[in-house]
Amino acid sequence: MSDIAVEKDEHGNVLTDFDFEKKDANMMMAYIWFGIIAIFLGGLAGLLQIMQRSGWITLPNWLTYYQLLTAHGVLLVLVFTTFFIMGYLFSGITRTLDGRLTPSVRTLGWIGFYLMAIGTIIATILILANEGTVLYTFYTPMQASPWFYVGLAMLIVGSWISSAGMFIAYIRWRKNNKGQPSPLFAYMTVATLILWIHASLAVAVSVVFLIIPWAFGWVPRVDVTLTRTLFWYFGHALVYFWLLPAYIYWYVNIPQIVGGKIFSNSLPRLTFILLILFSVPVGLHHQLTEPGVESFWKFLQVVLTMMVVVPSLITAFSIIATFELAGRSRGGKGLFGWLTKLPWKDARFITAFVGMIFFIPGGAGGIINSSYQLNQMVHNTWFITGHFHITVGSAVILTFFAVSYWLIPVLTKRVFTKQLNRLAIIQTILWSIGMILMAIIMHFAGLKGAPRRTAHSTYGDHELALSWLSYGQVIGVGGVILFIAIVLLLYIWIKLLFFAPKSEKTIEYPIGVIREKAEDPPPILERWSVWIGVSIALSVIAYAVPIYQIVVNNDPGALPFRSW
Amino acid sequence: MPKLEKIWLAIGSGSLVLFLIITGVMAVGMGLNPPDGMQTTIEPDKVEAQAPFDNPGLEQIGPNEYKATILSFVFGYDPNTITVPVGSTVHFEVTTKDVVHGFHIPGTPTNLMLVPGHVAEYSQTFHEPGEYLFLCHEYCGIGHEVMYGKIVVEDV
Amino acid sequence: MGKQTDEKSSAEQYDERLKGTFVTVIFIGVFIMLSWFGIFYYYITTF
Questions:
Q1: Which residues 6+ apart lie within 8 Å of A416 measured at CB?
Q2: Which of the residues B1, B6, B8, B92 would you substitute to probe the C interface, choosing the one with the greatest number of C C-beta atoms within 10 Å?
Q3: Of chain B's two ends, which shows fewer C-beta atoms within 10 Å, N or C?
Q4: DSSP, res A206
Q5: Residue in B53, B73, B92, B126 annotated catalytic
Q6: How many other C-beta atoms lie within 10 A of the C-beta of residue B112?
Q7: What is the C-alpha separation between A258 and A512, in angstroms, rounded?
Q8: Global pTM?
Q9: Which residues contact A284 (CB under 8 A, 6 or more apart)?
Q10: ipTM confidence
Q11: Distance from C35 to chain B by nearest Cα, in Å?
């Protein structure tokens, strides 16, 4: 039982209450705070955008649909996620390793935070000034202000510095606890950050060496396919960078909340290793319908994409098994009697649980998207928008909401009251209704051909396009409900930050306990150099030839355009 | 690992393999691949100076077989209306002279990304008469949503 | 009893308690299959 010191209350239940040191808590709060602002602004942009697309409002001429779309994407999937994830991972690293951060780690945390924050502010100002209306994928040769790319680069570099802080904390712990397997949370954090750094190196190369010199006018042309390919080398792993912290919550924190134990100390680690290995060499499945890449390499990456589904199959079983074992140990009988024993009235559980439900159609959709020819039926349609709104926009983000309902209280030492808990459950219900009306319906509209990333249009009153608009009415209602859910969320968060009653006792930071009989993980799982090596090797196999061909069959390069 | 979990993983992985076999057989055995095209062009901004994009349009290349050479730009296509008889197979070759565009005929697998410097190729047979919309499905600028055209498939 | 055999017997014992999990994941698997073949059917009817 290396994981945590086990204390028990008078009923024999394990206690995992925790207090952070003030200085550590401040640093983590900074990340959470920034995330809260990002989610509100990003959500507001989303609301205006969907109302425009549904044909309900006309935007003023100083604010375009595509500006809103850029802000929505950048603030939610690049900014909110990265800030929240860094805050959450820092908290878990602190909680499960030494209980406190060393001054140098904390300093790295702050430097990372400030770089990310300044980068975000620069990028956001440029989006509002209509100087960066290139969406969060910033495909060349549409050319934003060079400072927009500098801002994004700062966001990424900042996250590397925060990651470095966590690596140092982890290495220090390993040195002081030789021969012991690291706590599961810390292990998974290291895996997540290795994946993040590997993937984001590619986009950093693209931004720093290809796009920024071109955006400043130092070189006249840019290789469009190369920048796209480097973006998607990063882009698919990016979605796993969002998902892995949610998996951490499901594997490590939730067992404690449902009153269960972590079944195995090895399998979750193996899952994360598989995710490191197969999240990167699959990016071409985002480029299946484009010229310049040979079909053979596209298909090879489709095969690898199916491999990355396997750890999620393992996860599905493990998580449900945790619930069933917990429910049965509390007296649940029969095939599904255990379900009734789960803490349905606890927002920390049900919010994440609903997220898990959304991940089922999310996973099914993901397999469809990457199934080679089937991609032709859905590529760049609303199906894709629907897909990532139920994956990152529901499965992941609902999990993060669940995290916030105990992490903010631990950091602010305020109580997540019964009333707030009830509001949080209502928030989850609103979010679910909103996403069903918006994201699920988007799947169907997308199958009928409705394009993603497109302002209101009737396409010359074409019959088909008009049918998309009727779907759009339902989707618009879903969007409005989601915004109401965001306002409610903001109310809960502000209460937790400033107004909820101060707690006399320490507050629970739920960390699951590993089943006593579980074996220690084999040491090979913690030999990171091996896995980093295999991960790089797989990426080389998948990408070396396509990138070589892109560079050698050099397309002539494209001049910059500002078409917005 | 519990035995039931092993069974589940076998079933799950088996399904994934099945998906791969189906897509793989269609790709290798039937030649059904998503659009590709390894042909590059001259500088995209000069692409109108050279064949075939100096003279885009529809050309009959066989019985019921056509080649459609289409140039895309902000915010439209040249040509933006194509008329073919029902049952025709149209070989599309499409490029862009400025930013990245898309070429999608909703309800069909004709779903192409148009990347500057490259020619996207795909063949589509139109079995049903009607007016097919094609549209740009990659954000390309402020007029993105008005970038479309149509394929008229005539009943003969 | 050694840890190995302990682990083994507990795994067997857990199988009995994981039936609900198994049924649930099979439902998930069936859902994935149906979705996939639905879109597959859509694809083959269009070319």
A1: A347, A405, A406, A408, A409, A424, A496, A500, A507
A2: B8
A3: C
A4: I
A5: B73
A6: 32
A7: 9
A8: 0.95
A9: A229, A232, A293, A297, A298, A301, A542, A546
A10: 0.96
A11: 12
